Amino acid sequence: MGDRCDIKVAPNTKQNAIDISWGCNQTAELRDLRVGTTILRTSHTDWDLDTILKTYWPLTEIEANFRSLKSELGSRPIYHHKTDRTAGHQFIAVSAR
Fold first, then answer.
1. Contacts (Cβ under 8 Å, ≥6 apart) of 8
2. Residue 42: left if φ>0, alpha if ψ -120 to 50, beta else—which one?
3. For labeling, which of 11, 15, 39, 93 is most exposed (least CB within 10 Å)?
4. Predicted TM-score (pTM) of this structure
5. What is the 3-state secondary structure (H, E, C) of the chain?
6. Pairing state of beta strands 17-24 and 5-11?
7. For position 75, what pLDDT does the model report?
8. What is the CA radius of gyration of the chain?
9. Cβ proximity of 18 and 12 under 8 Å
10. What are phi and psi of 24, to 5 degrees?
11. Cα–Cα distance between 1 and 28 in angstroms, integer?
12. Cβ of 93: how many Cβ atoms within 10 Å?
């Protein structure tokens, strides 16, 4: 529950709990209502919402797959500054798998 509830434990002199009180944290509950909100911005003013979403969601899947591939191959971060060195690094990383 983390910060959703406030829990207070009152100990005695031997540090044993003698009273426990709790209450809901209204601020955390209100903040949780905004979690997951996404704002999409596009220059395509003639597209309807369904077209925008059908274009956007596959893009997020593709980006997630690239991040996963880079992480699993150990190719992040790449500190090369020349294209041929970066390409060589990627080739070795993929070949090693």
1. 20, 21, 22
2. beta
3. 39
4. 0.34
5. CHHHEEEEEEECCCCCEEEEEEEECHHHHHHHHHCCCCCCCCCCCCCCHHHHHHHHHHHHHHHHHHHHHHHHHCCCCCCCCCHHHHHHHHHHHHHHC
6. antiparallel
7. 58
8. 25
9. yes
10. -80, 140
11. 10
12. 17
Please, are residues 25 and 35 in contact by the beta-carbon 8 Å criterion?
no
Residue type, 68: S
In degrees, rounded to 5, the angle at the alpha carbon of residue 68 between the alpha carbons of residues 66 and 70 is 70
Specify the amino acid at residue 11: P
Tokens 């893009």 sit at which residue? 59
